[in-house]
Amino acid sequence: MSSAGSPSVSAAQRLQMTLDFCKLPLLVVARLFSPANKGRSWARAINDSMVRFMTTRRWEIHTFTSLFWPTGSTYVKWARKSKLEVLSDDVGAGGKLHWVGPRRYDRVLLYFHGGGYSLPVNDQTQLGLLLALQRELEKSGGAGIAFLEYSLTPDYPFPTQLNQANAAISHLLEKGLSPSKLILSGDSAGGNLVFQVFSHTLHPFPSAPAPPTLSAPYGGALLISPWVTFDATTPSFAENDKKDVLSSAFYSFLAEQVTSGLPSGARVYAEPYTADAAWWDGLDGVVARVFATAGEVECPRDAIVELLSGPIKARVPDTTVVVEKNGVHEDVLNAFASGEGEKSVEYWMMVKWATEVFDK
């Protein structure tokens, strides 16, 4: 992690960060032996313990973001380190597409990164996964892999990110890409953004640019622990509060950054779990198939499974929901952070699923 040196962090918050980091070694070691890490390798246990430590600090949001480089800077540094060409497209609405590997417009996986809409992309987790996918898909015809750099909340509230996702999709379709050869993908808030795109296509949000006209449904949606609810009262929040890498309180903290700027009538777009079943009527004309993961011990598990296995699967029959045994929020990404991503069963399920989508 590298500090971007955000000037918005107060002196008091910087002092609090310093004091908290002094506690880091002791608290991480203590958590290594907690039941939450039973059965995990040392590398994975250390990674998950550090994530838990970071997300249980009582910092304000700009203090968190000060620990990271902005998405664009992270991409450039990571691409050069990975010996990849730096390829970026301005797509309008303030968004950018960054390519992981070569540009191509015949088959594309478009990725929206997570972080509660408040945190930038992570090179070890999200970019590590995308590079592995790009290299693996290359063995079976290949695909362009691109991810969206979107503006962050709370400084840029809804529908900013929806507008930028809309612009990115339009950019790709204008290059000749068929919707049937486009996979929309994302983790956590990125999965939420995929649902925003679907909602906007079915029910255009009045103050947002019109959604693209689709000549065919999108080829698929690949969702990793999608953030579908801001409500922390479903049973899995209480059941997994001490087991997940993110506490129930941290999910609520991130939700506050989003909901504080929501305009009237926007809640159903930003929080797909609140939509009634009829909201999703016609979804089979928007996306052909869906693959989603949820961690067995992640807090939002119940809401993810209920939404995807219920109203979504009822309208898109080719929907697969995988509950990862002993998995935390974004379990496959945490595996990549600890160098174990390609050992993940769920990772290979994603590769197989994406390959099948592109080959249809």
What number of structural domains do the residues give? 2
* Approximate strand percentage: 5-15%
Q: Which strand order do you get reading across the main beta sheet?
A: 1-2-4-3-5-6-7-8
Question: Helicity range of the residues?
Answer: 40-55%
> Which parts are unreliable, with pLDDT below 50 for 5 consecutive residues or more?
1-7
Please describe the biggest sheet, giving its number of strands, its sense, and whether it closes into a barrel: 8 strands, mixed
Organism: Auriscalpium vulgare
Protein name: Alpha/beta-hydrolase
What would you note in describing this structure?
- There is one protein chain.
- With 360 residues, this protein is of the alpha/beta class.
- The protein has 13 helices and eight strands.
- Strand 1 and strand 2 form a beta hairpin.
- 42% of the residues lie in helices and 12% in strands.
- It has helices spanning 11-32, 42-55, 61-65, 71-81, 126-137, 160-174, 189-202, 235-240, 248-259, 267-270, 301-315, 331-337, 345-359, and strands at residues 88-92, 95-99, 108-112, 144-149, 182-187, 220-224, 290-295, 319-324.
- Mean pLDDT is 94; it is low at 1-7.
- It folds into two domains: 1-68, no CATH class; 69-359, 3-Layer(aba) Sandwich (Rossmann fold).
